[in-house]
Amino acid sequence: MSSSTGRLFRVTTFGESHGGGIGVVVDGCPPRLELDAAMIQHDLDRRRPGQSRLTTQRDEADRVEILSGVFEGRTLGSPIALLVRNSDANPGAYEHLKDVYRPSHADYTTEAKYGIRNWQGGGRASARETIGRVAAGAIARQLLRAAAGIEVLGWVHQIGRVTAPVDSTSVTYDQVEAHPTRCPSPDHAQVMADAIEAARRDGDSLGGVVRTIARGVPPGLGAPVFDKLEADLAKAALSLPAAKGFEIGSGFAAAAMTGREHNDPFTPGPDSRPRTASNHSGGVQGGISNGDDIVIQVAFKPTATIASAQRTVDRRNNPVTLSARGRHDPCVLPRAVPMVEAQMLLVLADHWLRQQAVDVLGCEAQS
Amino acid sequence: MSSSTGRLFRVTTFGESHGGGIGVVVDGCPPRLELDAAMIQHDLDRRRPGQSRLTTQRDEADRVEILSGVFEGRTLGSPIALLVRNSDANPGAYEHLKDVYRPSHADYTTEAKYGIRNWQGGGRASARETIGRVAAGAIARQLLRAAAGIEVLGWVHQIGRVTAPVDSTSVTYDQVEAHPTRCPSPDHAQVMADAIEAARRDGDSLGGVVRTIARGVPPGLGAPVFDKLEADLAKAALSLPAAKGFEIGSGFAAAAMTGREHNDPFTPGPDSRPRTASNHSGGVQGGISNGDDIVIQVAFKPTATIASAQRTVDRRNNPVTLSARGRHDPCVLPRAVPMVEAQMLLVLADHWLRQQAVDVLGCEAQS
Amino acid sequence: MSSSTGRLFRVTTFGESHGGGIGVVVDGCPPRLELDAAMIQHDLDRRRPGQSRLTTQRDEADRVEILSGVFEGRTLGSPIALLVRNSDANPGAYEHLKDVYRPSHADYTTEAKYGIRNWQGGGRASARETIGRVAAGAIARQLLRAAAGIEVLGWVHQIGRVTAPVDSTSVTYDQVEAHPTRCPSPDHAQVMADAIEAARRDGDSLGGVVRTIARGVPPGLGAPVFDKLEADLAKAALSLPAAKGFEIGSGFAAAAMTGREHNDPFTPGPDSRPRTASNHSGGVQGGISNGDDIVIQVAFKPTATIASAQRTVDRRNNPVTLSARGRHDPCVLPRAVPMVEAQMLLVLADHWLRQQAVDVLGCEAQS
Amino acid sequence: MSSSTGRLFRVTTFGESHGGGIGVVVDGCPPRLELDAAMIQHDLDRRRPGQSRLTTQRDEADRVEILSGVFEGRTLGSPIALLVRNSDANPGAYEHLKDVYRPSHADYTTEAKYGIRNWQGGGRASARETIGRVAAGAIARQLLRAAAGIEVLGWVHQIGRVTAPVDSTSVTYDQVEAHPTRCPSPDHAQVMADAIEAARRDGDSLGGVVRTIARGVPPGLGAPVFDKLEADLAKAALSLPAAKGFEIGSGFAAAAMTGREHNDPFTPGPDSRPRTASNHSGGVQGGISNGDDIVIQVAFKPTATIASAQRTVDRRNNPVTLSARGRHDPCVLPRAVPMVEAQMLLVLADHWLRQQAVDVLGCEAQS
């Protein structure tokens, strides 16, 4: 079960970084949705390594094949299985890591859990696993767009000590994609890119924050208790490699605010439903969407793989010094944007479908 | 399903703030665990209103009854159902809220989702719903203590603009409980208490941060993908009323650190397993516990109910001015401590049980 | 999890035959459904002991209390918790069974599984546990009636060696309820009643078969693979105490038929959808309802509790002779009718809700 | 979710009869289990078409590829993905079925549910989907054998009007596999084979019954309420294409027995646990295994595809006459044996894993 998520829009990923390939099965996508491989490939291309000099040099085309669930350009309602073959794997490059636990990687914990580990790469902990999620997210995007008019957009808000002020309500996809950092503020983007280059030269790495927004979410998605919308978003975000923190709306800043400052006053909306004058709630109140933009932030730690020498231990508990070789991102943030989007899309698709089974008895009581 | 959580240690809560009562069913607790009502009542008493002048004046004893699943002081392996009757409900006090949406409450979103609302209180969105979680958490605490030697302890880290420096590795339960704020630093606790009183007098409210730690967690709990331990902890935390943010280990501070600063070097441990020289990971690497203390932080917004007049709308989308009456907490943080502990306990109990079904084939491969 | 069932119409039962009470939590019932305790009590009264001289003399009123989820006569969309207190428990009557395994009961297997057993009755294996299912089934009945026009009706088809020929398409609720056996053929009902009385006098017991039908089920409910409608019905049926077999449509008779005999020819229906000329399929084809009546049969073994002396062993593996005392049904079939109905109602409610999340994108492709 | 089953040994199948291929993801298989493709291929070869002249002439090698989850001959604990490419698909052969609903197939119900259908074959309703189940079952077989000493064996008990008396306690795999019918009684096997040949020549088809047994199951597997072992077995059985009935132990014959006849007396066993003198219970009492052989029977209807002309309707509700072309089995029973085995193996593997998370607190209470 640990490789599945979602109640009705059910996603199961499989595959290690080195092996036959990476894939995903999406069960529960409604039938008759227009879908083709190109729609999925588009998001995968935003995630793939080697897309710019800011990312890892591992160069894999990551071409997706639709194995099932689509017929004549439309979904069948049956499981949609997608497969991306591993092509640029280089197991020999990992031979020196066979008996060593890399600091702040999952090497040690994987062995503690399973008593076995595919040392030819990161296994399930590899960022390659997110291929399946981004591919599934692309299907969710198509569903939410077609069925509900919901759009999800993410961007880089912070890298290292550089934070970009961006107006969440107006930022566009083209602005985000205009720069390889995926920071839509051109000036800050360049400073971020320079910082990434400097870290790479220095054998070091950087962290950052991705902000993601969902527009067009109708009121009523979510649930009041365990499956609050922000709870599922938090889980989705923290399930990404290297994620360390999550905020919705005001986030940690809320801790220092007073109720008078924080409460979002309701005002009459044009379509006879209320609007809020501010959005500290981040689009969710009591676990349920209120129709505002949903705004989340996800913090990522700096990449654990660095070129500098580090202290660690081997599998026999002996101290050793490790110097990483091989290809890696000095900063995951640019590639994390489509990953966070995907995770948000999966949560929204699931909750949107769940709501279809809630609102089934007519609305007379609402008057 | 929205009222259930956990895969093997399965918790289902029920009940509204006004009605027959609040309860919980815990399915999957192993048999033969010592359990009695007093163990559960202990945690409920830390959660209940009216425990100090810092909390709401609603005074309910919240006495728990074990309906099933326990026989002669031990669990049977069957569902443990617990019931707490509502006794101090005062529906009349809510009559003026029947047609009004309180700002930053769940009134509007509940109607948007369900088309109906029990206006005699907060319904499922009421903090009273957490009675079931705290009661279930007390059972999880008993299980983790007896079966695995795991202890969970939370405290108030921040209220408003006051942050208390506390040494996570040494803080004790008695230190936390010594002051009604549940801040274990006496000096800071008093400043926090004064701030809460000031907010109450001012018709305002305060937010804050709870830090919670799990000690004695063995390496290997968690999962590498969707059900990462930190992901389930994040969901559990954000499912609490008023929670806005979650961090594990370094949290958002990680975004501004470099890999060299952030990586936790491994050193040989005394029992032939590695230890980390720092704990930016927060006890979890790649979604799986590494044996270190697990450290999380949860941000809470200021209480939405304030005595000051506020702009809002009614159910017919007309603007109205609302002045809250009735009893409420000017700051939920002191009572949030047992809630966050409970949520962490539920996640750990579930993952501990899940691991029993993973490590079943002997460990020869680990040598 | 073993005490929960259903994906969207989620039912969790709790309680042992001796203890605080028996209950159920129904999570996922749509909001705004008319519901009151009397609707639930009606089905519970058909299940309760002591309703006629054919059933056990244990006389419990089994009054249901709605603890949550209903407000002003309508469901809120939140969990509906129901509680029935145990009133006629007589633990002393079981003292002699404390260390003995009754043949073909769950005494031994319960201890094998849990290492502990509430010997003051049947615990979770008691037929009393089905109170929660029948109560939940009554809510499902109300939902299916109001939302979809689906009706479920069961009756006794066979007791011992007596089988009643009944026209499934025309039999009515009043015919079933006209006789305490719940066999709608008056002549056969009387023979069955006489056989039950004879078995009781002889210290013996009888088995039988319940047939149940669902009318008005729209085409399209179910699923093509693991969650075939007949698969979920089979699980639901075999989860009842004493159930030994399940059939849909032609059932085991299909094994001796040829394809020409068994296939149900399609003919044009009046509303531009096909009808079948026969119904060997039992209303389900490929796991999905076809709009015909769904017809199932469930076989029940004779009651394991008999007054005659029996060989068995005690907890120390010593041979002993056991003579049952206490109150029991010589034949469960009359009371099994509302139980099978309830299980079928729960499956249909769940699949009906699931279908609401499938058919969401318009039907243009169907033309 | 409809394409997934199991709680801890979690199986998700994908793929249509015509498309990229058929596959399965097994999540939750414990790590360090010896596994290679040959072990899986062995069971697939027993399922594949074209294995004898009794089965369909569609000739596909059905070679399985392990995509993930296995490293150096052992499971990693991560999802095991298996893929079998479709090679002998012949979509043109189905062109004449594009607008016609074949009687007692899933053509109509699939369109009723999804509003779309891959008419180039049976889609998800095709028996080809069971490739994934048999492959997953082979992994479960390996787990149960290695971890618990459990063996599952099925055989053909009845075809058409021919029933073979077979001693369940002594029948062997070699006896079953000695004849292409998979009936271990050579004389009856030959009569069955002749009947199948006769049906084929006559443009007709036959049904039958598979009996399957599990040996070496320890006491304690299963659950007392919804997830009774026989309930999950019933669901597993009825989820197979063409299954119409399920029995455990005495099955429908129990209905005509008395309690004195049916009860299984306990006698002292050699290892200080009780044995039963008969096995009407079929190895399960109160939903939990008692250590006896588990014995189930599954009834299959005659193949719906027959060469004879049949009445039906097309998608515009017009009456048409259909004569099947193409390749099909005149009797699915020989190939159904590995399918039923697989389904039983999946249920037992899941419940065996579940029990590892129940029996965790030591057994002092059992003395």
Which CATH architecture of chain A is right? 4-Layer Sandwich
Give the CATH class of chain A: Alpha Beta
Radius of gyration of chain A: 21 Å
Topology order of chain A in helix (H) and strand (E) letters: EEEHEEEEHHEEHHEHEHEEEEEEEH
Oligomer: homotetramer
Total number of strands of chain A = 18
How many separate helices of chain A?
8
**CATH fold title of chain A:** Chorismate synthase, AroC fold
Q: What is the domain tally of chain A?
A: 1
Principal-axes shape call of chain A = globular
Unreliable stretches of chain A: none
Taken as a percent bin, the fraction of beta residues of chain A is: 15-25%
Look at the helices and sheets of chain A and give the structural class: alpha+beta
Largest sheet of chain A: 5 strands, antiparallel
Largest interface: A-B, 123 and 124 residues
CATH superfamily of chain A: Chorismate synthase AroC
User: Cα distance, first to last residue of chain A?
Assistant: 42 Å
Q: Helicity range of the residues of chain A?
A: 25-40%
Spatial order of strands in the largest sheet of chain A? 1-2-3-7-4
Mean pLDDT of chain A: 93
